[in-house]
Structure formats: C-alpha cells, structure tokens
Amino acid sequence: xxxxxxxxxxxxxxxxxxRRPVAVHRRGxxxxxxxxxxxxxxxxxRLLIMDAGLACQICRPDTALQLL
Length: 68
What we know:
The protein is built from two helices and three strands. The chain is 21% helix and 18% strand.
C-alpha cells in the first residue's frame, strides 16, 4: 500500500482519552477546520476500519487509503 505522510490525515474531535473521534479527513478538507489532530496513515486506517462512518463524505479518506 502507498503510505502517505502523517500530515496528510487528520482526525476531527481529537482522539484523546474519553473523547470519541468525530471524523477522519484528508488535510485541507474544508469541514476539518477546527479541533483537529494530525495522525499517521496507519492510525487513520485503523479508525476507519473500526468505524466506517468516520470517513468524511467530501474528501473520502477511506478511498484514498484504499479501504473500499
């Protein structure tokens, strides 16, 4: 698989203890404007595998990470 730089993926609603992520985005996606945390491709992939509903429907990180 083609691994991308860590800065290419962001999680909205940063995955901190006791806080559930809201969405996974590609960096630069307009809806990911606030409360984001950069993550590595492997972490973005793990989050999307656990909950496909986290994938932004605009920037489609699931497609970019070849999960479809």
